[in-house]
Task: inverse folding
């Protein structure tokens, strides 16, 4: 593949659900670090980080279903993100990995109380609609791995005033027909994420929030050295 950087290899791994494209760095062993891309991207976006990861780790990256070279299976959005989570679990099993460090990036969501707008039952964005995706149970997860929440200070996608949130755009008059705050309130994504993680911490989990200046939605691309420093700190348990 011409899109692969020197030192990165690609393979297609059959699982019980579908065949998944997996990138790896030639000759690397050790604890696995599995990178998962977001919407409108692929595993290829992780290559510079994979190559720069310290040598004691084994970097891997996958294409989710319907992206890159993974099978283009449909996504049942009514299951939330379970199609993706189940795929990921079967890849980990197929690769014979006892445990992994997971690194995820991106994906946004929609809501269903605006006349003429509603989440469908297929596709990646619809998986994140609150009618389909629930994360209330996160504090009950056992065991509770430590979480690093790393975000760009200038992110306009995952933001309390997200330019991808139709409710926020409606509230400022950028999109006509907004039914009002009672029917469809803007979604403060940063505050909501922090509230979920605070609940996780209150239940005995641990998380760390890091904000990288001069970075937007892709801090691993925009500020790779700062991103890697924080990732290495997290992987080492510091």
Result:
């Amino acid at each position: 593949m011409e899109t692969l950087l020197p030192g990165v290899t690609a393979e297609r791994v059959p699982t019980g659900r579908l065949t998944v494209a997996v990138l790896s760095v030639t000759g690397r062993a050790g604890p696995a670090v599995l990178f998962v891309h977001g919407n409108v991207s692929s595993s290829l976006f992780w290559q510079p980080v994979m190559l720069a990861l310290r040598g004691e780790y084994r970097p891997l990256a996958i294409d989710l279903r319907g992206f890159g070279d993974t099978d283009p299976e449909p996504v049942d959005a009514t299951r939330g993100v379970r199609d993706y989570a189940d795929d990921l679990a079967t890849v980990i099993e197929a690769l014979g990995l006892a445990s992994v460090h997971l690194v995820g990036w991106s994906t946004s969501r929609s809501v269903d109380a605006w006349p003429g707008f509603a989440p469908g039952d297929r596709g990646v964005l619809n998986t994140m609609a609150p009618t389909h995706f629930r994360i209330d149970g996160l504090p009950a997860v056992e065991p509770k791995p430590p979480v690093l929440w790393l975000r760009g200070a200038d992110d306009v996608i995952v933001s309390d005033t997200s330019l991808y949130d139709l409710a926020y755009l409606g509230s400022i008059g950028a999109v006509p027909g907004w039914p009002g705050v009672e029917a469809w309130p803007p979604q403060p994504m940063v505050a909501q994420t922090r509230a979920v993680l605070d609940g996780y911490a209150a239940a005995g989990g641990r998380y760390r929030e890091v904000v990288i200046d001069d970075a937007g939605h892709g801090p691993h691309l925009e500020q790779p050295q700062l991103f890697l420093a924080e990732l290495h700190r997290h992987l080492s348990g510091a």
Notes: The two ends are 37 Å apart (CA to CA). The helical segments are 47-52, 82-94, 124-127, 166-171, 189-202, 219-222, 224-235. The chain has two domains: 1-134, 152-218.
